[in-house]
Amino acid sequence: MSAMRYTYLGPEGTFTEAALRTLPEAATRELVPMVSVPAALDAVRTGDAAAALVPIENSVEGGVTTTVDELAKGAPLMIYREVVLPIAFALLVRPGTQIKDIKTVTGHPVAQPQVRNWLAANLPDALWESAASNADGARLVQEGRFDAAFAGEFAAATYGLEPLVREIHDAATAETRFVLVGRPARPAAPTGADKTSVVIWLGDDHPGALLELLQEFAVRGVNLMRIESRPTGKRIGNYCFSVDAEGHITDRRVGEALMGLKRICPQVRFLGSYPRAGVAPSDVRPPRPGTTDGEFLAASDWLTQCQDGRF
Q: Are 149 and 107 in contact (CB under 8 A)?
């Protein structure tokens, strides 16, 4: 395995690259752009890279389904950490292009919902066609295949383009969450502000099946931060669920919830416990009464005393 190589969704100039460069270790790694999320993750699976940074969620569009699906299938991978990056687009064009000249635009599919209102107001007749990434859209503009691309302003210099309009976003607080993914290993020690991610497969389809899954978290006081259903590809109506839960696998309430899921589900894939981006332990609300590690331990001790006849 190349311990010094990190892959990311490329080409150069993507928001993913910008997010990756916020990590301190990025300064000492070889950063390799890949043509797609599956390619970036497969490089980790084969040992060609130590880790990959890929987008997983956007505050406007929701989950990045390619990443969610890739983490649910194939050889297991694990999330080491997350990065949250504020997102604003620039309209990148070849030098000399004016707004009236723009007939075709491109960008990543996740970008379109974030600039839809701006497009309707300023380029209502422009034809949109999706690109593999925002930076790839910029490359296509450089090659003359499109008139303009929505991308990060930082991509302009890489592709010899100019930002015709800056700071474009329908939602001023838009941000994208990225995850650094590696091969399975022991999770990092808990920080007090952690997140645990899993993929859960339903067994037989029956009334209340999803409720049974959710109760494993609820009765133990584990807060869910994201739950997303994804088709398994087997047949219509057959789903798995990608879940982010508050806490660390070493927290007793989280560990017991995962054990409960393992008992009732045909498959549970652990994707990692890792620090929440931009959240300090002091920002995390304390566990509900009855769900602290101490209370779980006390209950376990009480059960042992009952079994031993010492109650």
A: yes
Alpha-carbon span 57 to 52, nearest angstrom: 16
Closest CA to 173 of 288, 59, 12, 49: 59
| 8 Å CB contact between 285 and 219 | no
- Would the pLDDT of 130 be above 90? yes
> For residue 60, what is the DSSP state?
T
Rounded CA gap, 243 and 5, in Å?
Answer: 29
User: Taking every pair of C-alpha atoms in the chain, what is the biggest distance, in angstroms?
Assistant: 86
d(CA 72, CA 268): 10
**What value does the mean pLDDT take over residues 227-235?**
85
Neighbour order of strands in the sheet with 267-275: 224-231, 239-246, 194-201, 267-275
The token duo for 236 is 């219509």
pLDDT digits (tens, 9 = 90+) for 185-218: 999 999 999 999 999 998 777 888 889 999 999 9
Task: Express each pLDDT in 236-285 by its tens digit.
Answer: 767 899 999 999 999 999 999 999 999 999 999 999 999 999 999 999 99
Count of positions (residues) in the chain: 311
- Rounded average pLDDT over 63-92: 95
The helix/strand/coil state of 135 is: helix
Cis check: omega of the bond before 33, within 30 degrees of 0: no
pLDDT (0 to 100) of residue 207: 86
| Rg of the chain in Å (alpha carbons) | 22
107-143 per-residue burial string, b: 16 or more CB within 10 A, e: under 16: bbebbbebbeebbeeebeebebeebbbbbbbbbbbbe
Question: H-helix or E-strand containing 79?
Answer: strand 78-86
Question: For residues 178 and 115, is the Cβ–Cβ distance under 8 A?
Answer: no
pTM, two decimal places: 0.89
Instruction: Read off the tokens for 2.
Output: 């190349």
Distance in angstroms (rounded) separating the CA atoms of residues 64 and 303:
44
